[in-house]
Amino acid sequence: MTEPEPFGARLRRAMDTRGPLCVGIDPHASLLTDWGLNDDVAGLERFTRTVVDALADRVAVLKPQSAFFERFGSRGIAVLERAVADAREAGALVLMDAKRGDIGSTMGAYAATYLHRDSPLFSDAVTVSPYLGFGSLRPALDAAVLGGCGVFVLALTSNPEGAEVQRATAAGGRSLAQVMLDHMAAENEGAEPLGSVGAVVGATLGDAGADLAINGPLLAPGIGAQGATPADLPGVFGAAVSNVVPSVSRGVLRHGPDAAGLREAAARFADEVRAAVGAA
Prior knowledge:
alpha/beta; eight-stranded parallel β-barrel; globular; TIM Barrel
């Protein structure tokens, strides 16, 4: 059996060809209402299918937020399964925003859910939380290698509450976030052109205050409705800015349900990011 191409290489190619942008699929109840849809499974399906049909053949990454599908139970998960399959078939990389974190066999089960090719929710990458200890992520890290997938680890999130944990001082004087970033760098050592273990670092931070040279992708939520702009990226990410995957959700989704409006918004953000980071 041929070994799968690593996620980091696939992501680098997707960003270089389609533009450095991740668009979130976040079917908030308020967004469904804004689109003239009911807050039910039918509305969820219509919303999701519209976004996938409009963007999956042109953006580098689509990031469904699992919670907004889970709230509808098994019928919502069925919508998510189809969205993942359709998006990947159209050429987008799918990053499942699930933020899972646990230990032992439970973490292994989460890894099998999102990172095993036989799973109906198999995705190109998944978000995880390391704050049960970075070593607790080992089942997901190992499954990602086997599947050619990526793992995005929460590091420096933009919510104010995150600082009490992430900025806390660990043994040796480093912040806890820096400890996690250093673990990620070790996982990515020697990978070319980009490692497959990424960090989640909020674009709204102003100054990350950490060494982000992890040789891996840096998922940057907060562009658009949360207040950050592409022009803010160099200030937050410094020399690592070329590895940033900016994530936009409402800034694009508010232009629906018109497919052309969604495409135009995504293209505009991608162009602004290219200009801000000096991408060709």
